[in-house]
Automatic annotation (TrEMBL), chain A:
<protein>
    <submittedName>
        <fullName>Sugar ABC transporter ATP-binding protein</fullName>
    </submittedName>
</protein>
<dbReference type="InterPro" id="IPR003439">
    <property type="entry name" value="ABC_transporter-like_ATP-bd"/>
</dbReference>
<dbReference type="InterPro" id="IPR003593">
    <property type="entry name" value="AAA+_ATPase"/>
</dbReference>
<dbReference type="InterPro" id="IPR017871">
    <property type="entry name" value="ABC_transporter-like_CS"/>
</dbReference>
<keyword id="KW-0547">Nucleotide-binding</keyword>
<keyword id="KW-0067">ATP-binding</keyword>
<dbReference type="InterPro" id="IPR050107">
    <property type="entry name" value="ABC_carbohydrate_import_ATPase"/>
</dbReference>
<dbReference type="GO" id="GO:0005524">
    <property type="term" value="F:ATP binding"/>
</dbReference>
<dbReference type="InterPro" id="IPR027417">
    <property type="entry name" value="P-loop_NTPase"/>
</dbReference>
TrEMBL record, chain B:
<feature type="compositionally biased region" description="Low complexity">
    <location>
        <begin position="1"/>
        <end position="21"/>
    </location>
</feature>
<protein>
    <recommendedName>
        <fullName>Xylose transport system permease protein XylH</fullName>
    </recommendedName>
</protein>
<feature type="transmembrane region" description="Helical">
    <location>
        <begin position="253"/>
        <end position="274"/>
    </location>
</feature>
<dbReference type="GO" id="GO:0022857">
    <property type="term" value="F:transmembrane transporter activity"/>
</dbReference>
<feature type="transmembrane region" description="Helical">
    <location>
        <begin position="70"/>
        <end position="89"/>
    </location>
</feature>
<dbReference type="GO" id="GO:0005886">
    <property type="term" value="C:plasma membrane"/>
</dbReference>
<feature type="transmembrane region" description="Helical">
    <location>
        <begin position="286"/>
        <end position="319"/>
    </location>
</feature>
<feature type="transmembrane region" description="Helical">
    <location>
        <begin position="331"/>
        <end position="351"/>
    </location>
</feature>
<keyword id="KW-0812">Transmembrane</keyword>
Amino acid sequence: MTAGLIEVRDVGKTFGSVIALREVSTVVNAGQVTCVLGDNGAGKSTLIKILAGAHQHDTGEFLVDGAPVRFNSPRDALERGIATVYQDLAVVPLMSVWRNFFLGSEPKVGWGPFTMVDRRKAKELTRASLAELGIDLRDVEQPVGTLSGGERQCVAIARAVHFGARVLILDEPTAALGVKQAGVVLRYVAQARDRGLGVVLITHNPHHAYPVGDRFLLLKRGRSLGCFDKADITLAELTRQMAGGAELEALEHELRAVGAVDGG
Amino acid sequence: MTRQTAVPDAAAAPAPGPASAGDERLARTRLLNQLVVRPELGSVLGAVLVFVLFSVVTDRFLTPSGVATWLDDSATLGIMAVAVSLLMIGGEFDLSAGVMTASTSLVTAIFATQLGWNTWAALAASLVFALLVGFLNGWLVMRTGLPSFIITLASFLMLQGLNLGVTRLMTGTVQVSGMRSAAGYASSGFVFASTMDIGGTTIQVSILWWLLVTAVASWVLMRTPFGNWIFAVGGSSASARAVGVPVTRTKILLFMTTATAAWLVGSINILRFTTAQANQGIGLELQFIVAAVVGGCLLTGGFGSAVGAAVGALIFGMARQGIVFARWESDWFQLFLGAMLLAAVLVNNAFRRRAERVRR
C-alpha cells in the first residue's frame, strides 16, 4: 500500500487540562472517502481543525505525502492542497454564484488602476467547474441565497476542487439538510472522490457515511473506538457503535422497565 | 431554473403536485431573481413617476433652466449619495458625512483666507484632513468592532463642535468668507464651481462631477475585484475573511472614500458660494442615506447600486425643485420624502428576503 495523502498516527491535542483528542490514527487516500463519526464532543472538530491547520497537534504524527508536517494556519494547509468546507460554507448569500466562486481570487484583465474582474472568464469557469461535478445551474448570476442548501454545499465543494484541492474536508455537510438534499450532496462527495480527491467526511449520521465511505474512524470522548475498512464493518455495527452500543442497550432496558411500570 | 434530470429536484415542494404546477412556481422564481439582481429598478420607476408628475403640473419643470435647476440640486447630494451607497453596500454607515461637507469647506476657507495659502494648497490640506477623518472613522469601527452608527455619530458631534469652535476662534464669527480674494481662486473655481453655457442655459460643473463620480463608483463596484470585496464585506464579513478578502482594509478605504466625496462637495460649495457657514451640513447625512436606500441599498449591507443612489438623489432634487415650481408648500416635501423612503424600504426588504431565503 502506498502512503496516503494525509495520515495521522496517535495524534493528540489538549486544551489546558482538557484532553480533546488522544491517540487517534487514520489515513486519507486519494480517491477514497474517510468518514469521521462521533457524537457531539467526541473530538471530530478538534481532529479536522488539526487537519485543516486551525489547530496544532500536541502528540503523535501528522504526515502529508508521507512527510511529517505542522501547519501554522489554514492557509498553510490550503497551500498543500487541503481544503475545508465548513458548515457555514463561507459563501455570501446576496452575491451571485460566480462572484462567490471567485471571491478573493478573482481572475483579472487590464492593467494598473484599470484592472478589472474578467467577468466572462469567471462566469465560464464557474459554470464549467460546477458542470464537471454534475451541477447544472441555469444561471450563475443568481444569488447564492436563492440556491438550496445542498446546492450551496456543492458550490463550496466545486470551489475547493477548482482551486486545486487534493484533500477535501467536509464538516457535517449533511447536518442541516433534508433527506433528498443530503442525497444530492453525498452524490457530489462521491464525484469528488471519483476525480481522485481524498475526502474526509465528518458526520454523526452513519446512514450518510456508510454508502460513500471507504474507511470509518469512530471517535468517542476524544478517543478512537477504531478505524475500520468498509469490508470489516456493517452498517448495523457502525450504527450500534455510534449510538454508544452497550449504553443504548442499557437505556432500552430502562425505558422498557418504565413502560412496564406504567402499563402495570 | 432547469436542472438536468440526473439531479433530483433540489427544491422539491412538500407536496409533489403535477409537473405543470412545479413549472409555474419556477417561472415566478425566475422573474423575482431577475428583479433581485437589479437593485436600481425601483428608484428608476420612482424617478419616472416624479418626472412625469412635475412635467404635467408645472410649466417650468421641463424648460432648460428648470432642468438645470433640479439637476444642480441633485448633483452635490448625488455625489455624496453614491459614496455613501458604496459604504452601505460594505455594511457600514457614516453619520459624519453631512457635517464633513461643511468641515472640509471650512478647512479650505480657513487655510486660504486666514493663513493666506494658495487655494490649491488649502484644498490639498483639506483633502488630507478628510482622508484622516475617514481613516479614523474606519479604523475605530474595525478596531473596536462597535457599530459604525455609534462611532460616526460621535465623530459627527465632534466635527460639529470643531466646526463652530475653530471657526469662532479663527474669525470671531461663525462663518469664513473672502475666498474670492485668495490666490488660485480663479483656476480652482474653474475646476470645482464653474458654469457652462449650453444652448443659452447655465449648467453647473457640479453636474459633471456627479456623473463622473457615479460612473467611476459604478465601474469599481461592478467590474473590479475591489467592488467584489465591497459586496462581500457587507454581505458577510466572516465569509469574506475566510476566503482571503482583506476586510479591514476594504472597510477603511470605504470610509475614506466617503470622506473624499465630502471633500469634493465641500470644495464645490466653498468655491461656488465663497463663504462657509460653520453650522452647515447638519442633517444632510440622513438625506444621503435616504437617497442610497431609495436607490436600492439595504440597511444591512451587501446589496445595492451606485447608479441607484444617483437616481435616488435625482428623485430628491426633482421633487424639491418641482414642489417649488408648482408653488406648493415646501412642507409637502417632507411627507413625500417619508413616503418614498417607506416604499423603498418595503421593496428592498422583500428583495432581500427573497435573496437570502434559506432553502433546504
